[in-house]
Each structure stands twice: as structure tokens, then as C-alpha cells.
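Ops channel
N.P.: pipeline sanity check, posting one input/output pair.
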């Protein structure tokens, strides 16, 4: 059983990107500049955005963090987005989700300039991804693909089950792994809350990717011997025994599932760090897609 160490791979990616930045600087070319808009004071979102700022510093990218209060109106947020769309110094940016309930996330998504949409959520970029054209790939699916590639996980002709059909993870990873690429060429089954006999579907899978946010959802009796399991879920659970006061749980019952696997991602330290690394990769891709 091989543990797919996202933390180690993400560090490797950041080191590679830092070298590319050095080359750009030596050639007198512009270094990518990533901006992030954070609306409100959601603790998990703030932690995540702050980590992205540190990643930019490590790699050598420019970075800008725009903090807006939770009472920011939709119109005010759209104005901030328009300013970034027209700021030639900003090469790419993200609007951190979730947004306060009074703001229409779809309207915000559509307002982002596709050429600066390093999250890969704009319909134009989703369409290009579906057609296997050069574009920005959503960070978590991109991170999954990269960890499969760097660990040489076999995918061609494999049966892959994706549990969860979100536009952020489930839907795009199902498309990517069905394409004529490596990693890819899988036969993909996209499962969700209406799927019948999910246990039996999973038992036939060579690769299981689960993104539900439901701790311990995938159990050992759902996984066949030798399967590759990718756990995207991450849920905070109160735990007084931890210094932080909480522990992080994935969607997979790791202790019972891991012994059956050929490859498996841990939580934490698996897909999470790869999501951040993929965002850095997308930011560097700005220099290629211009």
C-alpha cells in the first residue's frame, strides 16, 4: 500500500515553480501576481487564503489579499471584481467561497474575467476543460490528477467511481479522468445521492474518488482489494485531546480501508495540499495562456 503524500508532492511543485520564477526574472519578464478576495470572517476560509499568500511568497509570485466585511453588498463585491479585471498588474485572482448568503455566487462567478479565472470555475473555462483545450482546471481536480501522475498510478482502462457531483470536484474530475490523457482513459461512473446500490457500484471500482464532506462515508466493505482511494473530504470535529481543539476527518474510514488499497490519500496531507499547489500551477499558467 502506497500513501499518496500530497504534502511532499506539493512542496516539490512549489520548488519547481520557484525555479520558473527565477527564469522569468532573469529574462526580465513579469512574474505572475495572484490576488484573492475574502468576504467576511469565516475561519476556514481565512486560514486557506492566508496559506495561499504564504505559498505565493515561497514561490516568488506577487500576491494581493483584499479583505471585505461580511456586510459587503453584492454590488460592492462586483465593483471589486471589475477593478481586478481591469488591473494589468493582477494576472489571476480568486473569490474565496463560500460567500455570505445575500450574495449570488453565480453572478459573482460570471463577473470574473475568464482570462484571470485561476480557479477554473467560469463557464468559458469549464467548456474548454470539457473539450480538452488549454485552460485553467479547477484546483482540486487538477491536484488529484497531478498526484496520480507523479505517483504513476495506473488509470488506463480502469473503472473509476466518483462519489459526489459538485461543480468544484466531482463533475470536473469525472470529465478529466475519462479523457484521452494520462492520467485518464478511465471508465467513469459519477455517483450521487440518487445512486442505487452505491456499495455494489464501489466494490467494482479500481479507483474511488470521494468528495462529500461526510466523515467515514467510505468503509472497507465498499472497497475491493488493490483499489486506489482518493479522499477529498475534510471535516473538522471537536477533540479536546488535540492542542488545536479539533481533528480533521476525511470521507474515508482510513484505518479499515487503507490495508485493502494499492494507493490511498491521507487526511490531512493528501488532496488538501495539492489543491493549493494546483492553484499555484494555474497562476503560473497565466504566462502560457496569454
Amino acid at each position: 500500500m502506497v500513501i499518496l503524500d500530497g504534502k511532499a508532492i506539493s512542496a516539490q511543485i512549489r520548488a519547481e515553480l520557484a525555479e520558473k520564477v527565477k527564469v522569468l526574472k532573469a529574462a526580465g519578464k513579469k512574474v505572475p501576481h495572484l490576488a484573492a478576495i475574502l468576504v467576511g470572517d469565516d475561519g476556514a476560509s481565512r486560514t486557506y487564503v492566508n496559506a495561499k499568500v504564504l505559498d505565493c511568497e515561497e514561490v516568488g509570485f506577487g500576491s494581493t489579499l483584499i479583505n471585505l466585511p461580511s456586510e459587503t453588498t453584492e454590488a460592492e463585491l462586483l465593483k471589486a471584481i471589475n477593478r481586478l479585471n481591469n488591473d494589468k498588474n493582477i494576472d489571476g485572482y480568486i473569490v474565496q467561497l463560500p460567500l455570505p448568503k445575500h450574495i449570488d455566487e453565480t453572478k459573482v462567478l460570471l463577473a470574473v474575467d475568464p482570462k484571470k479565472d485561476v480557479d477554473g470555475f467560469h463557464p468559458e473555462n469549464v467548456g474548454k476543460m470539457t473539450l480538452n483545450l488549454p485552460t485553467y482546471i479547477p484546483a482540486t481536480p487538477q491536484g488529484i490528477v497531478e498526484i496520480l501522475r507523479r505517483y504513476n498510478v495506473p488509470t488506463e482502462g480502469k473503472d473509476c467511481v466518483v462519489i459526489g457531483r459538485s461543480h468544484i470536484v466531482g463533475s470536473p474530475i469525472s470529465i478529466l479522468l475519462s479523457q484521452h490523457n494520462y492520467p485518464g482513459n478511465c471508465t467513469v461512473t459519477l455517483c450521487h445521492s440518487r445512486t442505487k446500490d452505491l456499495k455494489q457500484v464501489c466494490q467494482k471500482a479500481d479507483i474511488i474518488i470521494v468528495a462529500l464532506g461526510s466523515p467515514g462515508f467510505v468503509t472497507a466493505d465498499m472497497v475491493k482489494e488493490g483499489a486506489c482511494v482518493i479522499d477529498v473530504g475534510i471535516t473538522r470535529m471537536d477533540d479536546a485531546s488535540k492542542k488545536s481543539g479539533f481533528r480533521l476527518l476525511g470521507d474515508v474510514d482510513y484505518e479499515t480501508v487503507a490495508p485493502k488499497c494499492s494507493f490511498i490519500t491521507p487526511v490531512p496531507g493528501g488532496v488538501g495540499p495539492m489543491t493549493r499547489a494546483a492553484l499555484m500551477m494555474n497562476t503560473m499558467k497565466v504566462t502560457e495562456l496569454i
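N.P.: looks fine end to end. The domain at 139-272 is CATH 3.40.50.720 (Rossmann fold).
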